[in-house]
Write a structure and sequence with these properties.
Keywords: Phosphoprotein. The chain is an alpha/beta fold. The chain contains 8 helices and 8 strands; from the N terminus they run E-H-H-E-E-H-E-H-E-H-E-H-E-H-E-H.
Length: 186
């Protein structure tokens, strides 16, 4: 378990070392003394809890790294779950949207790195989702993988609108995993 010294905490909080020692002595900040010289140490998790409790910002260096997020957009839940299993096995977090409108909401709330997209959905179809997404400045870095059972000309239309890759249903788990890994590196 990673620990921090009183001095490191003082630097993170931009306070005097004596202030950190007072937090420790008063029990506001949970810590322990090393045997021998008695230097203080604080578990990173305890320091983060202290910061949250006192509504102080968590330093970027201490924020836990989240797994990259993939948004799966498909109105057929068995297909969406299949894509989700492939993504999770490859180490990615996932969200599922069953329609275009829901996908738009999730894109703005969660900022995924990749979106898999079915073209044939009721209401807002996949083409409309691509057009909408490519118009959003905040989504410029989003990679779109179309996964559809439609013909080659339909897949080409999706690519022309701004999709980054396409796979036909039924898709190969291996090919999908390779695309995920390729797009996460870019």
């Amino acid at each position: 378990m990673k620990t921090l010294t009183s001095g490191e905490i003082a630097q993170y909080c931009d306070v005097n070392l004596r202030t950190v020692i007072r937090w420790l002595e008063s029990g506001k900040l949970k810590g322990f003394k090393l045997p021998g010289r008695g230097n203080n140490r604080v578990l990173v998790s305890d320091f983060i809890e202290f910061l949250e409790r006192h509504e102080m910002p968590i330093p970027e260096a201490l924020k836990p790294e989240a797994s990259p997020l993939i948004l799966i957009v498909d109105d057929e839940m068995p297909v969406a779950k299949s894509i989700q299993r492939v993504a999770r096995r490859a180490g990615f977090d996932t969200l599922i949207a069953t329609g275009g409108f829901q996908a738009g909401m999730m894109l703005s709330q969660h900022a995924p790195r990749i979106m898999t997209l079915d073209l044939s959905m009721p209401g807002m179809d996949g083409y409309s989702v691509i057009e909408y997404t490519r118009e959003q400045e905040s989504q410029k870095g989003l990679k779109i993988i179309v996964i559809s059972a439609l013909d080659d000309s339909s897949l080409q239309r999706a690519m022309d609108l701004g999709a980054d890759a396409s796979l036909t249903k039924p898709f190969s788990n291996h090919d999908l995993t390779q695309l995920f890994e390729q797009f996460m590196q870019n």
